[in-house]
């Protein structure tokens, strides 16, 4: 039997600790070191029973891990991932892949040239219900996808912003949160041709936006909207509606994505599908409702199992640096559209 993959954790904050918990429960993976200059990280490494390093470069040189999970602040992602690639260490890099498209281009080139893979942590794509939704769309269950409505509306507690990097450029709702929704919309509905957007920071008054209204035109012809705010007492978001992470009390009956096509419609994360008994029926006929079902292994755990396969060279990353770069390009197009008031197309990466 193959021994567990020795994985180092770089950045042991909220997200890093979630990865560590999944490593603990997965036979194919084991934590071998923690690198994080923060004040609580040494104690965390001790509690996990692994060596601690303040500096990840020293950790890479001394521990020679077989793979690394990078969950440090966004602005450090590309530089840290490049250090891992230089040490021949495959990376599971938390989203966003980077904070600027030009730096991500460098990472894509380095991963390609070195042959060392990067998997980006858009973990929701690993959720079985997203896999089923994509399958339904690809099989034509919705007909021609025509309109897409996405909601990310919840309230972060004020204490969330006590951590300084979360208030500064390089963080923000678009880059930290809506990037997940945008990534899923690309995954489900295809590439985006152009966007229009209005953003606002009127509730919190920080440098970053706390609200956004975004219009999307997909290359396949569908039109979409995504409205987001992290400052509203509302139940419509993947976090609250999907049950993916138990720290968010579940709003099981509330949808956050509504996909409608010429032959049917789908609400997510409930995976409820609607269609008419016969094509060509219309609003005077009853809509039939179908409850689709899937098995429910946690998306982060599935992502970790996939990462082990990627690091061992047995699978291609489900979300490569280039793919995640296209989601970042979409965020940049939204920012540009909000700044200029014009429709903007995402850059190709
Ligand atoms: N996939 C998801 O759903 C999800 C959810 C939350 C956060 N994230 C991502 O995870 C990353 C971390 O977010 P978080 O909420 O855990 O933040 P956090 O502030 O809780 O943790 C960040 C950690 O990185 C450490 N750090 C700072 N500089 C470092 C360096 N040079 N080297 C190594 N570690 C360093 C900090 O000390 C801290 O422990 C972010 O990129 C965020 O976007 C992803």
TrEMBL record:
Q: Where is the GFO/IDH/MocA-like oxidoreductase domain?
A: 131-265
Give coiled-coil spans as residue ranges.
Answer: none
Report the Pfam families cross-referenced here. GFO_IDH_MocA (PF01408), GFO_IDH_MocA_C3 (PF22725)
Residue ranges spanning the membrane: these are none
UniProt cross-references to Gene3D superfamilies, sorted A to Z:
Dihydrodipicolinate Reductase, domain 2, NAD(P)-binding Rossmann-like Domain
Annotated GO MF terms: nucleotide binding
**Which residues does UniProt assign to the signal peptide?**
none
Recorded hits in InterPro entries, A to Z, give:
Gfo/Idh/MocA-like_OxRdtase_N, Gfo/Idh/MocA_Oxidoreductases, GFO_IDH_MocA-like_dom, NAD(P)-bd_dom_sf
The name this protein goes by in its record: Predicted dehydrogenase
Originating species:
Pseudomonas indica
């Amino acid at each position: 039997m193959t021994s567990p993959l020795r994985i180092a954790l770089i950045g042991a904050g909220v997200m890093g600790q979630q990865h560590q918990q999944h490593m603990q429960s997965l036979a194919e993976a084991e934590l071998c070191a923690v690198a994080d200059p923060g004040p609580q990280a040494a104690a965390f490494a001790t509690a996990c029973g692994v060596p601690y390093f303040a500096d990840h470069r020293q950790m890479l040189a001394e521990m020679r891990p077989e793979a690394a999970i990078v969950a440090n602040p966004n602005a450090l992602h590309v530089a840290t991932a490049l250090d891992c690639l230089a040490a021949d260490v495959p990376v599971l890099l938390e989203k966003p892949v980077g904070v600027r498209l030009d730096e991500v281009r460098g990472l894509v080139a380095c991963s390609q040239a070195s042959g060392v893979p990067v998997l980006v942590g858009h973990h929701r794509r690993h959720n079985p219900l997203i896999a089923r939704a994509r399958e339904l769309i690809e099989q034509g269950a919705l007909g021609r996808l025509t309109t897409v409505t996405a909601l990310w509306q919840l309230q972060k507690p004020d204490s969330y912003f006590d951590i300084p990097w979360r208030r500064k450029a390089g963080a923000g709702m678009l880059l930290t949160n809506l990037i997940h929704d945008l990534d899923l919309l690309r995954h489900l509905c295809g590439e985006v041709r152009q966007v229009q957007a209005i953003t606002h920071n009127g509730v919190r008054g920080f440098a970053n936006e706390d609200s956004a209204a975004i219009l999307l035109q997909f290359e396949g012809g569908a039109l979409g909207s995504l409205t987001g705010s992290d400052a509203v007492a509302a139940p419509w978001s993947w976090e609250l509606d999907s049950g993916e992470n138990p720290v968010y009390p579940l709003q099981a009956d509330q949808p956050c994505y509504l996909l409608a096509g010429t032959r049917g419609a789908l609400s997510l994360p409930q995976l409820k599908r609607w269609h008419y008994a016969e094509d060509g029926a219309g609003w005077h006929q009853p809509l039939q409702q179908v409850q689709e079902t899937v098995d429910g292994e946690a998306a982060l755990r599935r992502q970790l199992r996939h990462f082990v396969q990627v690091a061992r060279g047995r699978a291609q990353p489900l979300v490569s640096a280039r793919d995640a770069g296209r989601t970042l390009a979409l965020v940049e197009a939204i920012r540009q559209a909000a700044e200029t008031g014009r429709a903007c197309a995402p850059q190709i990466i």
